């Protein structure tokens, strides 16, 4: 397996600690990523996203969605002993899981819905006014500079 040295990234940037930490995590991960439960991430608009997770067999009470330190944590745990049925074949996995998604700056969860065995989590990217592009007017000699909003 290849190893990458990210120390030049640390020396040449300021304020990108989260990005560098994420790259370290991704590149140093030798363990295969878990595949349960299956999920989709879609871009629904210019600033909105949706994560859809297949959670067949779980009720809304079994699921939890939490945002903590720029991470979206989706977890499911079934109550023990609530299933007294005897199965001849059990093909629907309802094992407990925890799935983490790292959120970019200015991305927040706007809502979550559970319907038809799917958990849909809606996200929106809200860039603050201070970070939006703006045009700077070039002043002529003797005039005060102005800022013009884009």
Briefly summarize what is shown:
By secondary structure, this protein is mainly β. The protein is built from 2 helices and 9 strands.
Question: Which features characterize this protein?
Answer:
12% helix, three-stranded antiparallel sheet, 2 domains, Immunoglobulin-like, 150 residues, mainly beta, single chain
Q: What does the model show?
A:
This protein has a four-stranded antiparallel beta sheet with strand order 1-2-7-6, with no helix packed on it. A three-stranded antiparallel beta sheet has the order 3-4-5, with no helix packed on it. The chain has a two-stranded antiparallel sheet with strand order 8-9. The protein is mainly β. The relative contact order is 0.16. It contains two helices and nine strands. Strand 8 (about 135) and strand 9 form a beta hairpin. The termini are far apart. It has two domains: about 1-35, no CATH class; about 40-150, Sandwich (Immunoglobulin-like), CATH 2.60.40.790. The longest helix is centred in the first third of the chain and has 12 residues, at about 15-30. The protein has helices at about 5-10, 15-30; strands spanning about 40-45, 50-55, 65-70, 70-75, 95-100, 105-115, 120-125, 135, 145-150. The protein is elongated and about 85 Å long.
Helix and strand topology:
Blueprint (H helix, E strand, L loop, with lengths): L6 H6 L4 H12 L10 E5 L4 E7 L8 E6 L2 E6 L20 E6 L4 E9 L2 E8 L8 E4 L8 E4 L1
Antiparallel strand pairs: 1-2, 2-7, 3-4, 4-5, 6-7, 8-9
Major β-sheet profile: 4 strands, antiparallel
Radius of gyration: 23 Å
Mean pLDDT score: 81
Strands, count? 9
N-to-C SSE series? HHEEEEEEEEE
Helical proportion? Answer: 10-25%
- Spatially, the strands of the biggest sheet line up as 1-2-7-6
The CATH class designation of the largest domain is: Mainly Beta
Report the CATH architecture of the largest domain: Sandwich
Shape: elongated
Distance between the termini: 47 Å
| Stretches with pLDDT under 50, minimum 5 residues | none
Number of domains: 2
Strand proportion, as a percent range, falls in 35-45%
CATH topology of the largest domain: Immunoglobulin-like
The secondary structure category is: mainly beta
User: Count of DSSP helices?
Assistant: 2
């Amino acid at each position: 397996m290849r190893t990458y040295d990210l120390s030049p990234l640390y020396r040449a940037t300021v304020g990108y600690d989260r990005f560098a930490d994420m790259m370290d995590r991704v590149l140093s991960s030798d363990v295969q990523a878990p595949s349960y439960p299956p999920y989709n991430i879609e871009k629904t608009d210019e600033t909105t996203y949706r994560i859809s997770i297949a959670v067949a067999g779980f009720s809304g009470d079994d699921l939890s969605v939490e945002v903590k330190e720029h991470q979206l944590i989706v977890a499911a745990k079934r109550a023990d002993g609530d299933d007294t049925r005897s199965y001849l074949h059990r093909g629907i996995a309802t094992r407990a899981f925890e799935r983490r998604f790292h959120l970019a700056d200015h991305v927040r969860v706007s809502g979550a819905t559970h319907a038809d065995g799917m958990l849909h989590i809606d996200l929106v990217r809200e860039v603050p006014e201070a970070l939006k592009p703006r045009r700077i007017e070039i002043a002529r000699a003797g005039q005060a500079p102005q800022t013009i909003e884009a």
